[in-house]
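Researcher: I'm comparing several assemblies side by side, and this is the next one on my list. It has 519 residues spread over two chains. Same procedure as the others: predict the full complex and return the structure.
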Amino acid sequence: MDSQLAIERIYREEYGRIVASLVRRFGDIDIAEEAAGEALLAAVEKWPVDGVPPNPGGWLTTTAGNRAIDKLRRESHRDAKHQAAYMLSDDTPHEPTGIVEDDRLRLIFTCCHPALAPEARVALTLRLLGGLTVAEIAQAFLVPETTMAQRITRAKKKISVAKIPYRVPSAADLGERVDGVLAVLYLVFNEGYLSSSADSSPIRDELTAEAIRLARILRQLLPGVPEVTGLLALMLLTEARRSVRVADGQLVTLDEQDRGGWDRALIEEGHALVRECLETGRPGQYQLLAAVNAVHTDAPSAADTDWGQVATLYSQLYALTRSPIVALNRLIAVAELDGPEVALAQVDRLPLEHYHPWHATRADLLRRLGRSAESREAYDAALALTDNEAERAYLTRRRGQLG
Amino acid sequence: MTKYMLTVHGTVDDPEFDLEAMQPVFEAVDVVNKKMMDAGIWVFGGGLEAIDVSTTVDNTGAEPIVTDGPFAESKEWVGGFWILDLPDLDAALEWATEASKACAGKVEVRPFQADT
C-alpha cells in the first residue's frame, strides 16, 4: 500500500515532464498520455518487486517512450507522421535542466494558447502539466466528469487539427503569451483559494498547491521574467495565511487573523522573491500585488500595517490596469490613512454594483461611520452576491454586530 | 504544412457599399495579398460579390432545385477569403492579424482537413 502511494506520488511529480517529453518526440498528446499511463502500470508491477529505480522519472520516461514505439509498430496502418516519429531516437537525458525542461515550457504554452477557450486552457494545464485526472479536475471545477472530458478532448483535437505548435513563442510574442500562462495559473490558484461556488469546501488545497507547483516550475524555466517571480511570490504570501483565513467555517479578514498562525517559511520565501523583483525594477501587476502582500505580512499586527505603502502600490497598479477593483483596494488603504468618510465618497463612485466586495467594503465603511441602517443594506447586497459559505458566515456575523 | 482558410465575414450591420470609401481598404488588401504571394504561402484568395446575387442548388432530393438567394437566412455571410499554406496555427494567426487590419473586418481562421 505504501509503495503504491509512493509510486503514485512520484508519477504525479514526474507526469508533466514525461508527457511533455513524449509530446515533443511523437508530436501527439494522446500517444504521450497513453504511454505515460502504461509506464505507470509497469511501475506498479515492477517497483514493489525490484525496488524504486535510482532515477524514477528517467525510468518512467524511457518506459513510456518504449511503450509508445511498440504501439506505433503494432499499428497496421500508421501514417507517415507516426512512421517518422518512431524512427526518431531520443538521447535526451532525463534531468531537471536543459532541453527536457524546455519540453514542459513548450507544452505549457500549447496548453495556454490563446486559440483555446480559457476554461480549456485551465483544464489542459492541470491535466497535462499537473497530472491531475479528468475526474479530479471535474471535481475541482464542479462540472460533471463527462463535460470536463469533452472539454479536454475538444481542446486536444483542436491542438492537433488546427496545428497549435509545441513551441516557446518568439521573443516578440513571449511577453503576451507568458501573461496568458500566468493568468491560467492565477485562475487555478484563486479557484482553490476562494471558491466562488456554494457546494464546495471554501479552500481547495489541491488547486492552490498545484498552482504553486506549476508557478515554481515556470520560474525555474523563465527566471528572467519578473512577472513569473511576482506571481509565485503573490501565491506564496497568500498561501502563507491560508490556515488562519477560515476559522469555524467563517472567513477571517486580514485585520482579525492570528498572525502567529501564518507560515513564516512561505512568508520569508515570498519576501525574498519580492525583493528580487524590486531589484529588477520592471514592475507588473503580479509583482505589485505581491508587494502589497509583502507589506501586510511584514506587519506584526494589523495596526502596524504601512498603509501609506499599500496605497502607493495600489496607485501604481491602478496606473497599469485602470481597474476599478484595484481602485477599491486602494481606497481600503485610504480609509486607514484619511478616514472612512474620505474613502466612502470615492468608493461610491466606482462602477462595481455587481462585485460583492464593493458592497462589503461600503458596509464596513458605513459601519465605522455609525450609519447602521445603510451598512445593513450594504451587507444584505453583499450577501446576495456571494455563494461562498465562509464569506457568507463572516458577512452575516458582521451584519449581526450592527447597533 | 497545412492549408488554412482565412475568412472575412460580411454582416447585415455593414454600411451601404461605397466604392470610394472602400478604396483605402482595397489598397491595403492588395498590399497584404502581395506580401502573401512574396512569402510563397498564397494558394488562393478573393472577395465575393454581395450575398443577394447568390444562388442555391439543392440536389439532395429527387430533382435538383435551384433557388435565388443563400441557403440559410443569416445575419452573417462570407465576404471574401484567403487560402494559405502554412506551418502551424501561430503562423495563420499572424497572417490573420495583418489581414484583419487590411480588410477592416474580423477574420476567421480554419484549417482544411488533412490531405486537402
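Model: For your comparison table: Chain B is about 30% helix and 35% strand.
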